[in-house]
Design goal:
about 25% strand; alpha/beta; Rossmann fold; binds NADPH dihydro-nicotinamide-adenine-dinucleotide phosphate; Dihydrodipicolinate Reductase, domain 2; 10 helices; 2 domains
Length: about 325
């Protein structure tokens, strides 16, 4: 069965990645919803989408699933409307701007019995899967520490609400730290327990919006993970490292949307590159979503995973604001 998708939000991420990924995974895009009729029409024409509308009910009537990629304060009501109409939902990260909103989404999704996934695309990366498999196979022994380098330059065409709209979830933490958290949970198979952080305002973020942050997450099993996220560093390289009792995994150029990067394993036997898949991350995520609808399997990243990353991001913001360590308390109900 071909899944019919409606796009909620005429966004950049859909334009650059997700429209192509839905089609590559065998889905059909039936409509796009925008708050601007004119922009919606132009967007639909540009991408060969048959319908554009400003009315969510009209969009939902022609879809089996929706992809929500509006700004973050809008995700809650749009997701709840979609699940109440019986539609499956792939929602962008952060799921919402508060845990209460994310839980309201979870309650509605549970009641509706639909598939609901969070688009932490890095779970679809060959490099992240190679790191996860190497850890699970015991190649580095017991993981003790991790480092995430996710600081770059926010491209000019994305220098909008991320820098000046706190109510939309602006800032490096809800944009980037949430990805770091999910990537660490994915590769380690462990949950964050508490965080500490310092945020920075280096001239790019407006109205008190942080444009850089460094911090440490302590995981439940004792591992400590250091992270650096920023919009301001023009020449930095991204990376993900996990260091264990018997070896280290060094991922370079791996915190990215593109299917690139390398992973090196270092042990007493020396150094060797790990084989990594170069499949498109977003196609992997949409294919898993389609399978979840058809076969009842788990999407790459669940709604609960999205609540964990949001809870960690919010704890990082609290820690940066107060100068104190904060516990990560997702409040996930069974
Ligand atoms: P955009 O700013 O491109 O889109 C967000 C909203 O802005 C759209 O829904 C649209 O509103 C409006 N908009 C878009 N273009 C214009 C314009 N030219 N003039 C006025 N309004 C416009 O955001 P992104 O695509 O960067 O991010 C959207 C969501 O996706 C966020 O939740 C973000 O965190 C997430 N994201 C996730 C990524 C991932 O890889 N997982 C990567 C990038 C973003 P309307 O609904 O009215 O059409």
């Amino acid at each position: 069965m071909t899944i019919r998708w409606g796009l909620i939000g005429a966004s950049t991420i859909a334009r650059e990645w997700v429209i192509d990924a839905i089609r590559a995974a065998g889905g059909e895009i039936t409509g796009v919803m925008s708050t601007s009729a004119e922009r919606g029409r132009a967007y639909a024409a540009e991408h060969g989408i048959p319908q554009s509308t400003t009315d969510i009910d009209e969009l939902l009537s022609g879809a089996d699933a929706v992809y929500i990629s509006t700004t973050n304060e809008l995700h809650r009501d749009q997701a709840i409307a979609a699940v109440r109409a019986g539609k499956h939902v792939l929602c962008e990260k952060p799921l919402a701007t508060s845990l209460a909103d994310a839980h309201a989404m979870a309650d509605a999704a549970r009641e509706a019995g639909v598939v609901f996934a969070t688009n932490h695309h890095l779970r679809g990366a060959g490099t992240h899967n190679a790191i996860r498999e190497a850890i699970a196979a015991g190649l580095i022994g017991k993981p003790l520490a991790a480092r995430v380098f996710h600081a770059g330059l926010l491209p000019a065409h994305l220098q909008g609400w991320r820098l000046d709209k706190p109510e939309a979830g602006a800032g490096a933490v809800l944009d980037l730290t949430v990805h770091d958290t999910d990537a660490l949970r994915f590769v380690l198979g462990d949950n964050p327990a508490e965080v500490t952080a310092f945020a920075q305002h280096a001239g790019m973020g407006k109205a008190g919006v942080e444009d850089g942050v460094m911090g440490v997450i302590r995981f439940e099993n004792g591992l400590i993970a250091q992270f650096h996220d920023a919009f301001t560093t023009k020449y930095a390289e991204t990376g993900l490292e996990v260091h264990g009792t018997e070896g280290s995994l060094v991922g370079r150029n791996v915190m990215t949307q593109r299917p690139v990067g390398t992973v090196t394993l270092r042990t007493a036997e020396g150094e060797r590159p790990l084989q990594v898949s170069d499949r498109n991350l977003y196609v992997n995520a949409i294919e898993a979503f389609h399978r979840a609808i058809a076969e009842g399997t788990r999407p790459l990243c669940t709604l609960e995973d999205g609540i964990w990353s949001l809870a960690t991001g919010l704890a990082v913001l609290d820690a940066a604001r107060t100068g104190r360590t904060h516990k990560v308390e997702p409040g996930i109900r069974a």
